[in-house]
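Give me structure tokens for this 110-residue protein.
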Amino acid sequence: MEKIAIISDIHGNLEALKAVFNDIENRGIKRIFCLGDIVSKGANSSLCLELVREKCEVIIKGNNDQFIAKDRSHDEMTELDKKRLNWNQSMLTNEQREFLKIFHFVMNFI
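Here you go.
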């Protein structure tokens, strides 16, 4: 039986993500699915996103990924949300933000 690793809620924590990928590799697992929330909160969202892109076969969009990727009017946000959004978006390139937008919240396997 083939094993699949499922990861999620990385939130820009590069050291934890590296440890998880190392453990997955040590277990000989080849297929990795990410259930989202790659970015936001931690200072290494960009590097985490690149590692996930490199190593994960499936990537599902998390709510934080959606929040950070989306272009929105700042009028509809609290001051705290504006600061959070601006800081998190500054951690990513425009290409990375566009990449986050293409993820889906669901994926069907048949």
